[in-house]
Design a protein that fits this description.
Elements lengths: L1 H15 L3 H16 L12 E7 L14 E5 L5 E4 L6 E7 L5 E5 L19 E6 L14 E9 L2 E11 L5 E7 L7 H16 L8 H14 L4 H8 L3 H12 L6 H27 L1
Parallel strand pairs: 1-9, 2-8, 3-9
Antiparallel strand pairs: 3-6, 4-7, 5-6, 7-8
Helix pairs in contact: 1-2, 3-4, 3-6, 4-5, 6-7
Length: 284
């Protein structure tokens, strides 16, 4: 090795016409670059640590995706699928071809062999791990498999689909689902707030009354990104009243005498009906 290094040093010095000391330094530098382990040589460095998936608005569909999410399983690198941020709990999961995938969860889950007889399901994270391919009778060999996950939350149940494939290198080690960012229509909210103010100003609505407090809650729910229908249901008011207040808030600032009279008449009728409904609810 020393003889090879010395011969290389002499030849390099002659080719580049530089002194032996400089030739030695150049060779040592080149050797250090050759022996250094480049970042791309480690397949782990190519993995994206976390892939964050923002869900579609709640209530639009029980399947918040157009296609199954891809999951690449590499040797030595498991993939974690997390529903912690969404507040969902995993109810069921199915892996159609378990010949190359091992599945585990962070809590109890009835249909997993090692997690049976649960008092209640409480898993929120799924861990998938690549294994040596098994020969399972009745299951044909495939290059991918479908993972189906059923979750539940206070907002209902959801179905998630994943296309799991074996891979040489990992792509993500965590797939984290997040709640959608609420979309607030501030034009509608402003109109409803103006409608409540005008109804109160005209003496059609009593400030501090039970109905007025429900309307305040209704506005809060709207500002949280809920639809008018959901916000009205949660606040305990009718959609008719919500529509009337919105129209009242959209009218010109200085109405004509006739339009104001008609508006007061219609609003009184709706508010009277609403009060009667609230009183019947209280009697039950």
């Amino acid at each position: 090795m020393n003889n090879f290094f010395s011969a290389l040093q002499i030849q390099l010095g002659q080719e580049l016409k530089i002194k032996p000391a400089k030739t030695q330094i150049l060779l040592l530098f080149a050797l250090s670059l050759f022996l250094a382990k480049p970042a791309w040589a480690d397949p782990g460095n190519s993995a994206i640590a976390v892939k964050r998936v923002s869900l579609t608005s709640s209530g639009q569909s029980s399947v918040p995706q157009n296609n199954p999410y891809p999951v690449a399983l590499a040797p030595g690198y498991g993939v974690n699928i997390s529903f912690i941020s969404t507040g969902e709990v995993i109810e069921k999961l199915w892996i159609d071809n378990p010949s190359f995938v091992a599945v585990d969860v962070d809590g109890c889950l009835d249909n997993l062999v090692a997690k049976k007889n649960c008092e209640y399901n409480q898993a929120t994270v799924i861990h998938l791990r690549r294994i040596e391919e098994l020969d399972i009778p009745g299951i044909p060999k495939t290059n991918s498999t479908l993972l189906t996950v059923v979750t539940r939350s206070v907002e209902g149940r959801q179905i998630y689909l994943f296309n799991v494939t074996p891979a040489d290198r990992p792509s993500e080690v965590v797939i984290e689902f997040n709640k959608p960012t609420p979309s607030v229509d501030f034009i509608v909210v402003d109109a409803i707030e103006r409608g409540i103010f005008r109804a109160t100003l005209q003496g059609l609505l009593v400030k501090g009354s039970q109905l007025h407090r429900k309307l305040d809650n209704f506005v809060v729910f709207l500002k949280d990104g809920q639809t008018i229908s959901n916000a009205a249901t949660q606040a305990g008011i009718s959609l008719e009243l919500a529509d009337k207040l919105q129209k009242m808030g959209r009218r010109p600032t200085v109405p004509t005498a006739i339009s104001q009279r008609d508006e007061q008449k219609d609003t009184i009728e709706v508010l009277t009906k609403e009060v009667v409904i609230q009183e019947k609810k209280n009697e039950q």
